[in-house]
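Morning!

This is the sequence you dropped in the shared folder:
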Amino acid sequence: MGHDMDMLRFATAGSVDDGKSTLIGRLLYDSKAIFTDQLDAVEKTSRDRGDEYTNLALLTDGLRAEREQGITIDVAYRYFATPKRKFIIADTPGHIQYTRNMVTGASTADLAIVLVDARKGLVEQSRRHAFLVTLLRVPHLVLAVNKMDLVNHSQERFEEIKDEFTAFAAKLDIPDLTVIPISALHGDNIVTRSENMPWYDGQSLLHHLENVHVASDRNLVDVRFPVQYVVRPQSATHHDYRGYAGTVAGGVMKPGDEVMILPSGFTTRIEAIDTADGPVDEAFPPMSVVVRLADELDVSRGDMICRPHNAPHAAQDVEAMICWMDEQARIEPGRKYALKHTTRNVRAVVRDIQYRLDVNTLHRDEAPGHLALNEIGRITLRTTQPLFVDEYRRNRSTGGFILVDEGTNRTVAAGIVVQAA
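The structure's back. Tokens below.
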């Protein structure tokens, strides 16, 4: 159980050249999470490019095109660990044309780091990223004011940026905001507290990442278990075994609990909960388990196990915020798509596009007619069969979905449920 709880997924975001890749390189380097040959290769490339220092950004800009252009294009996932915690980093791009990649990286994150350059202060992209992070309900946000060495470690400059961002954040719903002055290039306040900024009395970035409390961010109230697979071993010893495999999307499940199956509405009790390591006394997000039920019921992939008096909405009309991800087509009313939600696949038609959101000003463009690549808007969908959904703010797993173009099989949009009827 400890394995799941001691993991922190975090996403980094920021404008071009704010130093995201250098920051991640610094975290990997200072926490000894890179191999000697990787470091040798980076040192050689740095020398070849004429850099006077080891360019740690080269550790993360893995795609050749990214290295050549000096930008981050796709979401790169990096893993490292300290004695206290394991980490998965989603390094997301800064450019506006890669908004969709940013949405992908942040959608599963427990925490987001938005970097700003101390010289430039808040730019349009800092605001856009902060907005996207709150839209995706990332519970913890760190504003890392980078390149403090280039403003002489000025406390005054740091406070200016902090005040400006705090004022902007007041319009958004940010449950937990931390602001840290850093220099990724020199390692100030990354792993250890910096002697160059004695006026800063907070934690170093890594200390904050190691200690931020994420277990309580998950919804442990509403039991949600989308059935992914029916386990029926065909062996003589287990001929009467029937279990339902999946990932717990919400709540705490225990043997003996009364549960209801959707869409049938039948109720039964949990007989046992099995894992790869044997039976357990309880299951909670994000554990992958097999649930055995006391009664033989007709349960299949796409069904939802929940509590009898605490069920998700069974909805065919869904209002959602979506980020459009397809270069070739636009989303318009009347278009039909395949919709994938938890383990359930249905077809959906776009009834209406209510507004397009300008993510820089938070202005709503009413009745836009369509959404194009990287645009975010609120739409109404009608599905062929009911979805078992919660509002995204209650549960990120049961409140999120994707739209797929049935002709090309491309994922064209990511959506979050605002309201379901």
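Headline: Confidence is low (pLDDT under 50) at residues 1-5, 63-73.

More detail when I'm at my desk.
O.
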